[in-house]
Amino acid sequence: MAKLANFEIARGSDAVTTSIKSQLERIRWLAPEKLKDLEYRYDHKCEIFSFGMLLWELAFEKKPYKKIEIGKISDYVVAGGREEIKFDPTTSDDVRIQKGYKKIIRQGKLLLYKNLFLFLILF
Is 19 a member of any domain? Predict the structure, then answer.
């Protein structure tokens, strides 16, 4: 299985979760579940959220939550705050790419919800 990761803290799915307490900058890409509880086991839901943030960063060429003080990002995300998917009138190629990322991000959310729903039905 291919996986995008920060290989500095990568681990197998059955390994112990790495502590992120001293790595404040990574807050920009962390899922709300992990931000609520630093001991929360990093799972596929966290991976999907982080991948979505990476796509947002690539599409808009900005660090996530750049306008928010680093110490306040966690509270903002846990409370439901997210980066906007807002397109600037740039070149048509940029808009096309950004819209493609938006579609991927939305499909990722739908896939996550569909898998969760199936899991709940089966178990």
Answer: no
Closest Cα to residue 77, out of 51, 41, 49? Answer: 49
With a CB cutoff of 8 Å and minimum separation 6, the contacts of 43 are none
CA dist., res. 100 & res. 88, Å (int): 15
The domain that holds 76 is classified in CATH as 1.10.510.10
> Concatenated DSSP letters for 52-113?
HHHHHHHHHTS-TTTTS-GGGHHHHHHTT--------S--HHHHHHHHHHHHHHHHHHHHHH
Residue 6 lies in a domain: no
Higher-pLDDT residue of 61 and 106 is 61
Longest dimension (CA), the chain: 48
| Distance from C-alpha of 123 to C-alpha of 121, rounded to nearest angstrom | 6
- On the question of pLDDT at 103 being above 80, the answer is no
Q: What is the mean pLDDT of residues 97-117?
A: 69
- pLDDT above 90 (res 108): no
pLDDT of residue 65: 93
